[in-house]
């Protein structure tokens, strides 16, 4: 029983370390024509959004669509990063990795 408790404590410690690593690691998503660049960390916190000079000249609906698609891609990529890191700790592959 104490061995299982020890394993759980080690797993908890490893998970906390992964969380710290994910807060430091970033992924970058870019719209197809590079109008929008989103930088997000592994904890799904957006760290930066860059807009090209010509982005403001687009129609409002097109700007909204491009921005939403790029942010969603960044979040998906961040989820994949987190799943890979957690899979390495837990020993099994999580969905989305």
In brief:
About 55% of the residues lie in helices and about 20% in strands. It has about 100 residues and is an alpha+beta fold. Strands 1-2-3 form a three-stranded antiparallel β-sheet.
Topology readout:
Blueprint: H1 2-24, E1 26-30, E2 36-41, E3 46-51, H2 60-90
Antiparallel strand pairs: 1-2, 2-3
Helix pairs in contact: 1-2
Biggest sheet, open or closed, and with what strands and sense? 3 strands, antiparallel
Question: In what order do the strands lie side by side in the largest sheet?
Answer: 1-2-3
Shape: elongated
Mean pLDDT: 90
| Number of structurally distinct domains | 1
Q: What percent strand? A: 15-25%
Structural class: alpha+beta
Given the structure, what is the number of helices?
Answer: 2
Amino-to-carboxy terminus distance: 32 Å
Q: What this model shows, in words?
A:
- There is one protein chain.
- By secondary structure, the protein is of the alpha+beta class.
- It has a single domain, classed as Nucleoid-associated protein YbaB-like domain (Ybab, Chain: A, 2-Layer Sandwich).
- It is 56% helix and 18% strand.
- The chain contains 2 helices and 3 strands, in the order αβββα.
- The chain has a 3-stranded antiparallel sheet with strand order 1-2-3.
- The mean pLDDT is 90.
């Amino acid at each position: 029983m104490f061995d299982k408790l020890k394993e759980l404590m080690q797993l908890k410690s490893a998970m906390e370390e992964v969380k710290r690593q994910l807060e430091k690691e970033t992924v970058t998503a870019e719209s197809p024509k590079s109008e929008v660049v989103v930088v997000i960390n592994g904890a799904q916190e957006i760290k930066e959004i860059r807009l090209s000079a010509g982005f403001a000249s687009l129609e409002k609906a097109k700007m909204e669509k491009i921005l939403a698609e790029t942010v969603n891609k960044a979040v998906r990529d961040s989820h994949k990063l987190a799943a890979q890191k957690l899979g390495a700790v837990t020993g099994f592959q999580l969905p989305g990795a």
